[in-house]
Design brief:
- The chain has about 475 residues and is an alpha/beta fold.
- It contains 16 helices and 14 strands.
- The strands form 2 sheets. Strands 8-9-10-7-11-12-14-13 form an 8-stranded mixed beta sheet, with helices on both faces. Strands 3-4-5-2-1-6 form a 6-stranded mixed beta sheet.
- Helix 4 packs antiparallel against helix 5 and helix 14 runs antiparallel to helix 15.
- The longest helix has 25 residues.
- The relative contact order is 0.11.
- Bound molecules: guanosine-5'-diphosphate.
- The site of guanosine-5'-diphosphate has 15 residues, from helix 9.
């Protein structure tokens, strides 16, 4: 697109690698390509082997593959050239320096290639988000969802809704603008039928559990319980058994430690609140010998924070010491609700029988484990995997709303449709419908009135 600078950047991860890809996008791409020794008249979408040269010294930088994507058939919609270099940091640096020395070229800002793809209509907002999610995906289910969104599943759904609403609006507009024309007199009523049908579809969509967002953000499991029952040990033991994607070490200022697990292809964030005590214990103000009151206060605060964390979690593992079973502390009892799984830890310290004698407690699943020895962890993990798969694995083929902003926009749209249906006057109704359409358009980032004009003139051959 004219008026844009030409940008360049290393598009593969920095560091040493077999190959490193440097991408150039913009009107100066072809000139830059030939200045560095590439073909003057490159063949579209063909790879050529080139001795890349520094334009100043004429020294060969690398023998590289060069690809040329003339606009508009490129990722950004602009002229794009790609250099596939050998992935040594010095090679890459020399190539980037050579490009920086070219007139009209500058290093790209973060996300600028994708921004240009959006500006040039190559990707809409949901596709941009899908691409970002695909790159960030940590599990198979996340990858599948992101790929679906990047390939336009969510856009197709919302665009379909939007076009149907535009058709309804066209009828309402016509009823306002051309009252004397030979139009169906019941245009507004027909529009209401259409809108009602669509509003029901949208409400149903909004009524589904927010699987898409959970899949993107991870299923949240909080580990709660009194201090010293083995919460951190349990977190570590579970993380070691499964593929722990990211193990964040306890920072001194954090009061929650998290690990990201891959359970059956689904992302799970396992959070432990045990850091709280370490954090407080580590502060310089701590008296050498804390009195009983201080410890009590710390524990109460710990439980309070644990409870807060647990409230926002999808599931909580309530941990208690096996040796206290079945006389659980009232604080622990209070944590057992419909999202709880009770874990009795330190089974290895249990008296000889070593069985809780039940697999449920107050209607909730009960597991006896030893975080230290690993006993019982397999059964607990199987259970968690079943729960997560059951909750997240039912998305079917309909595209998911993966971000709060999708949900908000859809709610706004639904509210506009409600107002439209309740409106007593046609001009007001039309305005509510326009607002609802705008809200939908914000999901894909395609909000313009040209579409509306197209629909009006296509569907109603007014002919004057
Ligand atoms: P938290 O305060 O609840 O996070 O508890 P920790 O994980 O820090 O564990 C408290 C103490 O219990 C530590 O000394 C652990 O080594 C010990 N511990 C944790 N799990 C087990 C277990 O399964 N068996 C035994 N014998 N000790 C354990």
């Amino acid at each position: 697109m004219t008026g844009y600078d030409t940008i360049f950047a290393l598009s593969t991860a920095p560091g040493r690698s077999g190959i490193a890809v440097v991408r150039i996008s913009g009107p100066g791409s072809r000139a830059a390509l030939s200045a560095l020794g590439g073909p003057g008249d490159p063949k579209a979408r063909h790879a050529s082997l080139v001795d890349l040269k520094s334009p100043e010294e004429g020294e060969t930088i690398d023998r590289a593959l060069v690809l040329w994507f003339p606009r508009p058939h490129s990722f950004t919609g602009e002229d794009v050239a790609e250099f596939h270099l050998h992935g040594g940091p010095v090679v890459v640096r020399a190539a980037l320096e050579a490009l920086a020395g070219q007139d009209g070229l500058r290093p790209a800002e973060p996300g600028e290639f994708t921004r240009r793809a959006f500006d040039n209509g190559k990707l809409d907002l949901t596709e941009v988000e899908g691409l970002a999610d695909l790159i960030a995906a940590e599990t198979e289910a996340q990858r599948r969802q992101a790929l679906r969104q990047m390939r336009g599943a969510l856009s197709a759904l919302t665009e379909d809704w939007r076009h149907r609403l535009l058709a309804a609006l066209a009828q309402v507009e016509a009823a306002i603008d051309f009252p004397d024309e030979d139009l169906p007199p019941d245009g507004w009523i027909q529009a209401k039928d259409l809108v009602l049908e669509l509003k029901n579809d949208i409400s149903q969509y909004l009524g589904q559990s927010p699987i898409g967002e959970r899949l993107r953000d991870g299923y949240q499991i909080a580990i709660v319980g009194a201090p010293n029952v083995g919460k951190s040990s349990l977190l570590n033991a579970l993380a070691r058994r499964e593929a722990a994607i990211v193990a964040e070490t306890a920072g001194t200022t954090r009061d929650v430690i998290e690990v990201h697990l891959d359970l059956g292809g689904y992302p799970v964030t396992l959070a432990d609140t045990a850091g709280l005590r370490e954090e407080i214990d580590g502060t310089p103000e701590r008296p050498e010998q804390p009195d009983a009151d201080t410890i009590g206060a710390v524990e109460i605060e710990g439980m309070r924070r644990a409870r807060l964390r647990a409230e926002s979690a999808d599931l909580k593992l309530v941990v208690a010491d096996f040796r206290d079973w079945p006389n659980l502390d009232p604080g622990v009892e209070a944590l057992i609700d419909e999202t709880a799984v009770l874990v009795l830890n330190k089974l290895d310290l249990a008296p000889v029988s070593g069985s809780p004698g039940a697999d449920r407690y107050r209607g909730r699943p009960l597991f006896a484990v030893s975080a230290r020895e690993g006993t019982g962890l397999g059964g607990l993990l199987d259970h968690l995997r079943d729960l997560v798969t059951g909750d997240l694995g039912v998305s079917g083929s309909a595209p998911s709303l993966t971000r709060v902003r999708h949900r908000r926009a859809l709610e706004e749209c639904r509210d506009g449709l409600d107002r439209f249906l309740a409106a007593a006057e046609v001009a007001l109704a039309a305005e509510d419908l326009r607002l609802a359409i705008r809200a939908l358009g914000r999901i894909t980032g395609r909000v313009d009135v040209e579409d509306l004009l197209d629909v009006i003139f296509k569907d109603f051959c007014i002919g004057k």
